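User: structure tokens for LysR substrate-binding domain-containing protein, please.
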Amino acid sequence: MALRGDWLPALAAFESAARHQNFAHAGEELHLTASAVSHHVRKLESRLGVALFQRHARGVSLTAEGRQLADAASDALTDLDGVLAVLRAGRDDRDRVRVDTLHSLAHVWLIPRLPGLVAAHPQIRLTVDTKTALTRFDDGGPDFAIRHGSGHWPGLTAHHLMDDALFPVAAPTLPGLDRVRSAADVATLPLVSDLGRQGWADWFRAADVHPAALDERHVFSDSTDALEAAAFGFGAALAREKIVTAYLASGRLVRLPGPVVPARWNYHVVYPAHRRLRPAAQMVVDWLLREAGTNPAPL
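Assistant: Done. Predicted tokens:
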């Protein structure tokens, strides 16, 4: 049976729904409603004469026939995506790698290491975009992103990059620092906060300290800005281990008493599950994983 052009929208909707195991998530990806995705899938099932999904109260799951078609569709789209990427980028752009990451991680962890990447792979050309919003992998978007989270995102392949941990820091010149001898004493200092999902309340709970109130005087949306504020004497900051190392090494910040609390969310390299990384992007990802596993932060 020849594959006619009017099959393609239904196949695209099916492939996305199969990958997400969810019509609503597929609709978000394709800019359709969940009912439109369902209509495409039912149209495909009618033409093929087989059920591709089992529908139940909790959602949908693939039948054996659906799994067979999903595997073939995924392979075909991956191959097409690779060819289109080459045609779109052109020969001169094959070594250009586009990366999205957090400003805090780029500023104090990634950028200081980039001379090592250039030395190992001088042909690589990077475009680094920093943002707090979740990355959209649209046409012309990044090859991959570095995300801070649980490691589970629908439709994305995630490689664990590195764990993180939290502990308090302050400028050595912060007034009152000479009286800080314990985690309880940290609560007497003015506190600097960021918008991280683990904050001062979590750290004091882990330290078994229960202050009547927390003096969180200054709040910054970015973790690096919070560390900079602490370095200028605004107060004590709750630092993430991976982005504070250079501040400690330079002496701009010092560690305060109290526990090191493992972070509930960590760093991951992510990219669309249906897409193979281009060779240049895979080279950078491999380098990142080696850096995270073997090399301390440079000064």
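User: Anything notable?

Assistant: The domain at 165-262 is CATH 3.40.190.10 (D-Maltodextrin-Binding Protein; domain 2).
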